[in-house]
## 1
Amino acid sequence: MKIHGERPLDPQVSGNNVKKVSRAQVPGVQKRPVNPSQGSERVDISERAKEAARLLEAIKAIPDIRAEKVDEIREAINSGKYRIDPMKIAEKILGR
């Protein structure tokens, strides 16, 4: 929607005629007591979300590479003891 023109449609709504009204001036509106402990915003996180955050932190703590397993395989390769069984590989690929 486009509005063209310089002046408002209703002269009573122009910027010069607008009054600021406090809650006390509006009939039927009561002033709410201010609680200092509610002065800031608050976010409640569900127990499920807290558990998810704990699990995420635990996962982040697990190393990406199991160094002891890598060392074990490296030593087996270097000593000539590491053997590859093609049948086992085929079975794993086929999901048996």
## 2
Amino acid sequence: MTEPKPRSDRSPWNWLLLIPVALPLITPLFNSDTPRLWGFPAFYWLQFAFILVGVASTTLVYRMTHRPSLREAIDE
């Protein structure tokens, strides 16, 4: 039986993980009271938007870089 290749985490997809880190650091995005969404100032609803961006980018990177394990390959 051949041994699997060593895992390499050097995928270009990993660069997408910088988006949810860098986006909240751009303070001019939420340094105002307007626009309001359902009465909430931009600061509050943008925090929730940042969470959604983080979840979406993490999910995308995981799906694009996930390799099935040996056990999953045998089960198929």
## 3
Amino acid sequence: MSEENRRIIPTPVRLRRADAVRSKLADPGITDEDLAEAAAWARDKTTPPD
């Protein structure tokens, strides 16, 4: 925020790229645990994630 001529000027918040990704993943309900399971499955490729 800044002030100019007695007016408050809002400044946009810049999200970090990771925050934007987390936000998009949270919308459909994907959790950190889901991501960890998917990553482990992709590395192992022997059994599908639950």
